[in-house]
Specification:
With about 375 residues, the protein is mainly α. The protein folds into 2 domains: about 60 residues, Hormone receptor fold, CATH 4.10.1240; about 260 residues, Rhodopsin 7-helix transmembrane proteins (Rhopdopsin 7-helix transmembrane proteins). The protein contains 12 helices and 4 strands; from the N terminus they run E-E-E-H-E-H-H-H-H-H-H-H-H-H-H-H. The strands form 2 sheets. The protein has a two-stranded antiparallel ribbon with strand order 1-2. It has a two-stranded antiparallel ribbon with strand order 3-4. One of its GO terms (cellular component) is plasma membrane. It is a multi-pass membrane protein. Belongs to the G-protein coupled receptor 2 family.
Length: about 375
């Protein structure tokens, strides 16, 4: 006989199943559980069995066998696979370049200044972002396994990725703030307010992400917070980022205005110098993150695949652009590296020369005279 109490609601790390009467089977379409997958079979469904004693059978196991076929077909889609490959490849290259740039900025003390200190924190935030993008790319190649067996890991990865992206944008804002201050006034030349910079770069993103996580945990009960971009809570993340990017755009326009005024007041300015100033200004775009303003809003529809590809390329290559343009192509950094290489080469040459000289002297010295025995005079 059936018991009066049925099976309670249960979370299987992927979906929250409703209470079910004892001795019955609850079935839900795969299209309802996995709205983000292609639905080639409208009748495909997942189910759980509630036994006559009011317990979920098989230890609460859910049969997703029909849905797994849809998930494997999703891998044939060109766009998600291409995005994962772009994220994995370009983020790995960015990771290597960021590590090299951090080593350069941390090793050579002659480069130490407020601007380089801000550069290091920007590189650290981009380094964390590159790590998270690599994790997202790896998960994108095997989405079913990640969602099904480690929902907490998926959410943790999403939180860290969101924080790193937000921190990198805010450190770009700090870069713009410092650059604008250095062009317009010399108040930060000696005593840059790094307490303020740390609060803007690391503190505000941490606070916004914490609020977002709490709201999502209580109000968005979906596997891996699927569809989080459509929730109203996403504005706790996107609004501060958009504001920071817009202010950076204002900084950039004002910097260009000041450069033009300075060039006009100098009658000896040449066209070559004008081109150099314009080129330097254009190089500010990847550092200040203004390029991301064009891709803050997903257009949806037929343009969404193009948006996803370009946005993935921009996000994953940001670290590469910053490390190359503002470290390895910097004339001051190149001069320091050249001097270090020259000293290293000279030291190696002197060491080898001393060894060769010592060996040469050893081989060319005449052998010691044989010991002559004293002869007694007779």
């Amino acid at each position: 006989m059936e018991t009066e109490n049925g099976c309670p609601a249960a979370w299987d790390s992927l979906f929250c199943w409703p209470p079910t009467a004892a001795g019955s089977t609850v079935s839900l379409p795969c299209s309802y559980i996995f709205p983000f997958l292609r639905q080639d079979n409208a009748t495909a469904a997942a189910f759980r069995i509630c036994d006559y004693e009011g317990n979920w059978s098989n230890g609460g196991w859910t049969n997703y066998s029909e849905c797994e076929k849809l998930e494997f077909k999703e891998r044939d889609s060109v766009s998600p696979f291409a995005i994962s490959i772009i994220l994995l490849t370009v983020s790995s290259i960015s990771l290597v370049s960021l590590c090299a740039a951090l080593v350069v900025f941390s090793t050579f003390r002659s480069l130490e200044c407020p601007r380089v200190r801000v550069h290091r924190h920007l590189l650290l935030s981009l380094l964390l972002h590159a790590f998270m993008l690599i994790g997202v790319a790896a998960a994108g190649l095997h989405p079913a396994q990640l969602l099904r067996h480690a929902d907490w890991l998926c959410k943790t990865l999403l939180v860290l990725k969101t924080y790193s992206a937000m921190a990198s944008v805010h450190w770009m804002f700090v870069e713009g703030l410092l650059l604008h201050a250095s062009v317009t006034t010399s108040v930060f030349d000696r005593h840059a307010p790094f307490t303020l910079y740390y609060s803007l770069g690391w503190g505000i993103p941490a606070l916004c992400v914490l609020i977002w996580v709490v709201l999502m945990s209580f109000q968005w009960n979906k596997a891996c917070w699927e569809g989080y971009g459509h929730s109203p809570f996403i504005w706790f993340i996107t609004a501060p980022m958009i504001i920071a990017l817009l202010v950076n755009a204002v900084f950039l326009v004002n910097i260009i205005r000041i450069l033009i005024i300075k060039m006009r007041t100098n009658s000896a300015i040449e066209s070559k110098q004008i081109r150099q100033a314009v080129r330097a200004t254009l190089l500010l775009f990847p550092l200040l993150g203004v390029t991301h303003l064009l891709f803050c809003v997903n257009p949806g529809g037929r343009w969404e695949p193009f948006y996803m590809l370009v946005n993935a390329l921009l996000q994953s290559s940001q670290g590469l652009f910053v490390s190359v343009l503002y470290c390895f192509l910097n004339s001051e950094v190149q001069s320091v590296l050249r001097r270090a290489y020259t000293r290293r080469r000279s030291s190696t040459w002197r060491h080898r020369s001393s060894r060769v000289l010592a060996t040469s002297l050893t081989t060319q010295l005449p052998p010691p005279p044989p010991h002559e025995e004293e002869t007694a005079l007779t």
